[in-house]
Each structure stands twice: as C-alpha cells, then as structure tokens.
Amino acid sequence: MARIISGSAVALCLLGCGHHFDYIGKWVGTRNVPTSSNPDRDVRHTLGKVQLEVKDGGKYILIDGGMPSEGTLDFQSQGASLVPTMIIGKPASRQSPDVVSQFAAVVTVDGKALKFQSPQGDVATLERKP
Description:
Layout: H1 2-16, E1 25-30, H2 41-48, E2 49-55, E3 59-64, E4 67-75, E5 79-87, E6 90-91, H3 97-101, E7 106-110, E8 113-117, E9 123-129
Antiparallel strand pairs: 1-2, 1-9, 2-3, 3-4, 4-5, 5-6, 5-7, 7-8, 8-9
C-alpha cells in the first residue's frame, strides 16, 4: 500500500511541479535599436532581431543581433534562464566569464508570447513562428 501511495505522490508532483508553458518551437522578435547607434536600416534590423528555437529536452539555439549561441534552459516559476554551452561556435567553458554573461539571457511568459531580456537590459517580445 505504501508503494502505491508514494507512486501516486510522485505522479502528482510530476504533473503539478515545474513549468506548464509550451516553450518548444521557433520564436522571433525585434528589439528597438536606436538610429543613433547605427543609421543603416538593414544593420539596425539585424542587430535588433532575436531568434530563439527551443528544442525538446530544454535545449535552445539563439541568434541575438546576428550572434549565435546554444545551450540549455533553466526553468523557473515565471520563465527560464538561457544558460549558454556554445557561443559563436566555441564551447562556453573556453570563454571568459564576462563573455558567457553577455549571452545569459532570460525569457518570461507573456500571455502566448515570450519576453526576451538580454543581460544588457534590452527587451524583445518573441512570437511563436508557425
């Protein structure tokens, strides 16, 4: 009987614990890039574009301002931290802590969208891409 109860408790925790939002898929958004930082419209578009692909198992690929990184998501109650394992094609373990911190963004759930916040404080709303 004790095994049945403990098995039920584990099943309930698995259903009730953790995140409930479906992060898996491709997400795209644009942050505002001031004209003063670069007057060229195409360059501003590239610098402002954020593409996030979340894969099954909590892995992600991020292209932020044209700079690629990949890693794992660390889920929290209202969102997830992006923990980079590769930065511009090189292992994060071989990068300085300052470089790694520049790619450690946060996403929070905003209705059906994700709010992306870079370590520099820039924010972009990411919409799910079909």
